[in-house]
Please model this.
Amino acid sequence: MKPYRLAARDGKDTIIEIVGNDGSCLIGEGYCTIIAGPCAVESEDSILTAARLVKELGAHILRGGAFKPRTSPYSFPGLGVHGLELLALARKETGLPIVTEVLDVRDIDRVLEVADIVQVGSRNMHNYPLLRELSRCKIPVLLKRGYAATVEEWLLAAEYLMAGGNEQVILCERGIRTFENMTRNTVDIGVVPLLKELSHLPVIVDPSHATGKWQMVRPVAKAAIAAGADGLMIEVHPHPETALSDGEQSLNGGNFSRLMDEIRALARLEGKKM
Ligand code: PEP
Ligand code: MN
Model:
């Protein structure tokens, strides 16, 4: 038996439809889907400003963490349930579908009330009880690669979701930990064509966490699309210098606008709908 069965590329490509308040978008082969928004939901004003900004510039899906996995217990942990309420408000106002992270099995029901896609973060890729619970849910899961996970471990985590009945899995490369410490993580661009060969699942890239530096986000985002990624997850903040988390890797409106123009041109070149 192959170590992974359901993710293996012997069927059709998985195309996932995400339905927002006023329209829908598709994620998978042939599409270039852009997820954008702040690292964390910080306040009503900041999430609504960010949501309007990314919507106006053409993003398809809004991201924003309500429950934040922070390395230090003294860092901003997110607004929790209040953050979810603010995401619901942003969804209502902009029509954008929402992706947000669930950290704990006890929060799944509350997150599912708001989210159109639920994110399993890098630190939780190996959290098998969480994967098993989400495998029983009818919601697309954005499964980030564990920062020290091999491709096989990552695909087997996807397998947990699919084996339990949830076939709507999106793989997200977000960089891995190596000996290099000038960047936050090391981007594994080669994993994009590799996964496209091995698996039928959509593959997107998060160049924000992968690099940790806003100056590197645009070039690496373009490399990801050129390598065949089905989309991007980009941290965007109206005022990155005041962000409560990950400001140094967040694009401001001007830089996100420039990125979107460049990605549109690349998507055309790659024959992807955007
Ligand atoms: C995030 O996307 O908010 C995040 C915490 O990323 P990662 O799990 O990849 O570190
Ligand atoms: Mn972040």
